[in-house]
Every structure is written in structure tokens, then in C-alpha cells.
Recover the amino acids of this structure.
């Protein structure tokens, strides 16, 4: 029987489990990232699916928590992030829409934080951490009380961070190496404990395998679509731009489908329904049944 590999902290099933198993660790992680105190966690959920309204595109949030009246969304991004800025914008809009009830004034919106922990440099400037805040072009000292913060971590540049807990955290995310940092050592202990759960570990690896296979199939389909579109363009004398536009549209649709499938498989495995998760990955009819069951 083939040995099932261990899951890494940077893989979202493990990240979500660690954060859910010990909300205090999640709170301390946020303190390291934000560089400011975070109050006691009042509520924490993982794999939270949100839809701003019926018919709108839903999103799946890795860790959504509330502390001291503030709202925090923490995402582990091991794979390349497509259009990260616009994705963060949509996360923010979805969170705000759910927070502000009908008839309430805008000052009822809680302060919110969106944190993406990325394995790669998704911004491209080579920094270990990016604080993406609104600013006024006419004067950087002009404040706008919007009440939100966006932060993107780049684990690949951990060695450029100043010595301290943030550097240790980024290094651990990047390569799993520990040192004498208390938070990192505690996270590593939780990772080891989760990996000791053989049934859960097998389900987590299976879930990642299903999603990886879906990505591979989506990539193949995108290439085939592009070639088909180019061929149609040459045959019909159409412009290359139209052919590439066809491919891009198909790629967008498949990317959305991939996220949708990932959320479904996560729900099924969270309920111990590994056989149903396997069926959802390959059987379109069963997949639609499960989507209906969970309202996804």
C-alpha cells in the first residue's frame, strides 16, 4: 500500500485545520502579520462560502474570524493567484455586503482585514510583505477613513524580512523550517498532530489531488480551446484577437468551475464523505446533485 505523504502548513486543508483547531494560534498569527494587538477570537469558521446575493458569484474563504468587533479573512495561497487585486476587491465587497444590514448606517461597518499568505510574489516587487491601502493622489498625508486593510505576504522573500516573528513565519510557510520562534514551533506541533490523523491526512491529500487534476484538465482544455479558436480564425479569416478572446472566455469559465468544484469537495470531505467527493470529481451528474444539496 502506497504511503500517504504528509500535508504541509502551506496547503489549505492543513492551514484551515490548524487555524480551526486552535483559534489562539490564528489570533497570534494575525498579530505577527498586522504588527498590532488582536483581541480574543469571538468566532472562527473555515471553508466559509459566501454569496453577496442570489445569482452572484460566490467565494470560499479559508479562515473567517471575528475578534473585538473586527472581521478578518485569512487566505493561504499555495497556487498562483489570478488577478489577486480584483479578487481581494470582491472579497471585501462580499464581506461588507453581509455585514451591513438593511437600514443601518455606514458607520456600522466593522473594521476589516484581508490577509493573503502567498508562496510566490503575486505583486512582483520582491517584497516580503505588501500593505495595499487606499491613498489620495493629491496628498499621501490625506486620510480616508475606509476602515479596511489588505495585506499580501510573499513567503518566497522571507529572507528579506527583518529578523523576528514575521520572518520566521514566512520561512516556515516557504520551506517548513522551524527555529526558536514560539508561534512557529506551536504551528509545527499542530501540523504534526494533524498529520498523525491518518484518515484525515488521506482525505486531505485526495482532495488536493482531485483539485490538481481538475487544474490540469482545465489547462489542457484552455490550450485546446485556444488552438481551436486560432484554427477557426485562420479558416474563417477572423482576427487573432477574437480567437484569443474565445480562449480567455473559456478559461475564465473553467477557472470559476474549478473553484466551485474545490468548495464542493471540501464540504464533502469535511463531512467524511470521501466516496462522494471522488464521485463529484469525475461524475458531472452526481456533482450537480451535490451542488444542489449544499446550495452551492
Amino acid at each position: 500500500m502506497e504511503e500517504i505523504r504528509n500535508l504541509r502548513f502551506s496547503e489549505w486543508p492543513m492551514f484551515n485545520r490548524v487555524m480551526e483547531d486552535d483559534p489562539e494560534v490564528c489570533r497570534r498569527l494575525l498579530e505577527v502579520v498586522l504588527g498590532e494587538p488582536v483581541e480574543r477570537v469571538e468566532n472562527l469558521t473555515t471553508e466559509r462560502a459566501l454569496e453577496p446575493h442570489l445569482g452572484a458569484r460566490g467565494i470560499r474563504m479559508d479562515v473567517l474570524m471575528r475578534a473585538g468587533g473586527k472581521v478578518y479573512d485569512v487566505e493561504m495561497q499555495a497556487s498562483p493567484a489570478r488577478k489577486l487585486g480584483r479578487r481581494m476587491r470582491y472579497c471585501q465587497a462580499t464581506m461588507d455586503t453581509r455585514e451591513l444590514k438593511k437600514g443601518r448606517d455606514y458607520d456600522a461597518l466593522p473594521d476589516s482585514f484581508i490577509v493573503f499568505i502567498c508562496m510566490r510574489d503575486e505583486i512582483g516587487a520582491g517584497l516580503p510583505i505588501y500593505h495595499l491601502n487606499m491613498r489620495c493622489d493629491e496628498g499621501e498625508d490625506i486620510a480616508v477613513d475606509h476602515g479596511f486593510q489588505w495585506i499580501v505576504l510573499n513567503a518566497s522573500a522571507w529572507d528579506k524580512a527583518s529578523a523576528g516573528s514575521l520572518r520566521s513565519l514566512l520561512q516556515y510557510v516557504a520551506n517548513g523550517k522551524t527555529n526558536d520562534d514560539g508561534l512557529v514551533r506551536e504551528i509545527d506541533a499542530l501540523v504534526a498532530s494533524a498529520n498523525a490523523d491518518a484518515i484525515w491526512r488521506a482525505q486531505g491529500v485526495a482532495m488536493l489531488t482531485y483539485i490538481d487534476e481538475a487544474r490540469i484538465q482545465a489547462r489542457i482544455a484552455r490550450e485546446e480551446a485556444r488552438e481551436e479558436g486560432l484554427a477557426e480564425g485562420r479558416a474563417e479569416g477572423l482576427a487573432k484577437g477574437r480567437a484569443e478572446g474565445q480562449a480567455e472566455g473559456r478559461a475564465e469559465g473553467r477557472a470559476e468551475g474549478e473553484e466551485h468544484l474545490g468548495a464542493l469537495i471540501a464540504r464533502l470531505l469535511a463531512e467524511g464523505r470521501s466516496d462522494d467527493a471522488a464521485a463529484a470529481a469525475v461524475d458531472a451528474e452526481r456533482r450537480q446533485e451535490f451542488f444542489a444539496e449544499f446550495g452551492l
About this structure: Residues 180 and 207 are 33 Å apart (CA to CA). The two ends are 35 Å apart (CA to CA).
